[in-house]
Specification:
By secondary structure, the protein is mainly alpha-helical. It is 37% helix and 5% strand. A hairpin with a 2-residue loop joins strand 4 and strand 5. Helix 3 packs parallel to helix 7, helix 14 runs antiparallel to helix 15 and helix 14 packs antiparallel against helix 17. 52% of the residues are buried.
């Protein structure tokens, strides 16, 4: 789907696509076609492509394309940096709005929030245009409107879900909402029921498989509905959907959902849209779009030297790295004291000085998630440490990795306009995520043994020696391939049979949550998980209390009953005012 984005944007330029800004909504688009002029199957298909194209958060701004990392589908700022997995990185004054988010000092004037809001509600409006205009298309059959309507409602639910987990009481915008002056009746509401309704319709109306990669199918809708239930703590309802999804689910292409053989395949463009992909933001490069169709939301998140020269953002935290330690006798994680002693790093050690990496036992997923000094960094060479970090004193010693391409893939899976525009899909829902939701639901309402089974499926894949990071055949020529020798002391085991039941529900709950950190680290989920579990203040403040010793700028703290949600952009509140000048939307508590 994403490869059609350039075409769809060109098409939509001449349509009545509506932005989320009231001032624009009340003005006709110069040169726009009337709705009746695009009320055809071809026109509606173009509108639907346009609705999908907003999954990456990028729209065409005056002056041309520029990557909108503020609205990146990976949620690297809002989900991972705010969730204790990573620092802002770079240097102190660069993108200071992220520092405000990281330190929980932001307010409603932070333009990152405004751009994220604009992106998700533009996606909503594009989905609504499909629903509204398809009813006027005389050449569309009932089957056509059912299919396109189901996809549009899935997308509308997805975009509202993104807004919901960011801001909580948000406007739900349906296709019949009007924006006439004095009749701007979108107000803050609890939108879960609307999201559930859209996803239920989509699940019941979409086909099991799709002929075009990237389109939502029945199981993508079922997965997103299950995720909504998890956020609402409706564990029984979620379990029913997840049981079906795990047993019967098929990818859009018809393959049975399953974990890929190796963990790292999920972050390699060569293996995208395979059996672990439930729903993804599609990315393509060198297609004539100048990078518009690429995965550009993470363009800042590369080592500052050695690869692209830009830009040093999103370095993993020491707190995250410490999670990957394992018990040397059992191969299991230490759920309680993992952060009492740090995995050794090269903090403040020049690249030319000697350094010996941590020798203790580690979960092998660490070195596919985090770039550490002395360990092969994909096929780019042994990570030299400080020379690849923009400001190690400020942002720490580690590098992000899941969004990074292999050296051998340059020009094939990177765009010729700029290497940081890649063809790596953003995994919005992958099957590992589904299994861990199911494990969580089983802990809450079902069987601890079943929860253990699901977690062990994840851990068994991680324990596959073929999926370890290995040393180079010739470190001076990293493109020459890898040996069979692990690059670090990897040791991971599954939980012994009956271990969860023996330890009890509290332990099992903690183990499942911990496993989400290991499996989904740096994928934008952590902050939202901590909030839905009700432990954000405890976890994040414990993180800050230790990390601020090295990262001295992290002096603020998470305030309960405030920082669970971000401030609604003030511009949006102002734009919701009616004839009486009173805004219809209200700010979140504490802002």
């Amino acid at each position: 789907m994403k490869r059609l984005k350039t075409l769809s944007i060109a098409f939509l330029t001449f349509t009545v696509i509506i932005s989320c800004y009231k001032s624009k909504l009340n003005q006709p688009v110069p040169g726009a076609l009337a709705e009746q002029e695009i009320a055809s199957k071809k026109g509606v298909d173009g509108l639907l492509i346009g609705a999908y194209s907003m999954l990456d958060g990028v729209s065409i701004a005056p002056g041309g394309f520029f990557p909108d990392w503020e609205a990146a589908p990976s949620n690297w700022v809002y989900g991972s940096i705010a969730g204790s997995e990573a620092y802002k990185g770079s240097i102190q004054g660069d993108q200071s709005q992220i520092t405000e988010i990281e330190t929980f000092t932001s307010n409603a004037g932070n333009f990152y929030f405004d751009l994220k809001w604009a992106a998700v509600y533009e996606g909503v409006q594009r989905a609504n245009s499909v629903l509204r205009i398809m009813r006027k298309a005389s050449d569309m059959t009932k089957a056509d409107t059912t299919e396109d309507g189901a996809e549009a409602r899935f997308l509308r639910a997805y975009y509202h879900f993104e807004a919901k987990k960011m801001w909580n009481k948000i406007p739900f915008v349906g296709e019949n909402v009007t924006y006439d002056a004095g009749n701007y009746h979108i107000v803050n509401t609890d939108t879960w029921q609307y999201i559930e309704n859209d996803l239920t319709y989509a699940m019941n109306s979409l086909p099991r498989t799709q002929t075009q990669i990237g389109r939502a199918n029945k199981y993508a809708a079922e997965a997103l509905l299950a995720k909504a239930f998890m956020f609402e703590h409706k564990f029984t309802e979620a379990k029913q959907l997840l049981d079906d999804l795990i047993t019967n689910g098929e990818t859009a292409g018809g393959a049975k959902y399953q974990l890929l053989e190796q963990f790292q395949f999920n972050f390699n463009a060569q293996y995208k849209n395979m059996a672990e992909s439930v729903f993804a933001c599609q990315a393509s490069v060198n297609d004539g779009s100048g990078g518009l169709n690429s995965e550009s939301g993470d363009a800042l998140n590369f080592p500052n030297g050695g690869i692209t020269g830009c830009c040093g953002f999103f370095p993993p935290s020491q707190y995250l790295v410490n999670h990957f330690k394992t018990d040397a006798s059992t191969g299991l994680p230490d759920l309680d004291t993992f952060n009492s002693q740090d995995v050794i790093s090269d903090q403040n050690i020049p690249s030319g000085s000697p350094f010996v990496p941590y020798a203790g036992t580690l979960d092998p997923r660490l070195d596919w998630t985090v770039g550490r000094r002395g360990i092969p960094y994909l096929d780019w060479g042994v990570n030299p440490g400080k020379d690849w970090v923009r400001d190690q004193t400020y942002s720490g010693p580690y590098l992000p990795e899941k969004n990074v391409f292999f050296s051998a893939q340059q020009g094939m899976y990177t765009d010729n306009s700029w290497n940081v525009f890649t063809a790596i899909n953003v995994n919005l829902i992958r099957f590992a995520d589904v299994l861990l939701w199911a494990a969580e639901a089983e802990v809450e309402v079902g069987s601890l043994d079943k929860a253990e089974t699901y977690v062990n499926m994840i851990r068994a894949r991680a324990a596959n020696p073929a999926g370890f990071v290995h040393t180079y055949v010739d470190p001076s020529k990293p493109s020459g391939g890898f040996t069979q020798t692990p690059a670090a002391n990897y040791f991971i085991k599954t939980y012994p049979p009956g271990y969860f039941a023996a330890q009890g529900q509290t332990y099992a709950r903690k183990a499942v949550r911990y496993e989400r950190m290991l499996e989904l680290a740096m994928e934008g989920h952590r902050f939202f998980d901590l909030v839905r579990w009700g432990i954000a203040a405890t976890e994040i403040n414990a993180y800050i209390s230790k990390e601020k010793i090295q990262r001295t700028y992290m002096g603020a703290q998470f305030t309960p009953n405030k920082n669970e949600y971000y401030p609604i952009p003030q511009t949006q509140i102002d734009l919701s005012a009616g004839k009486d000048g009173k805004p219809a939307m209200k700010q979140n508590p504490g802002y």
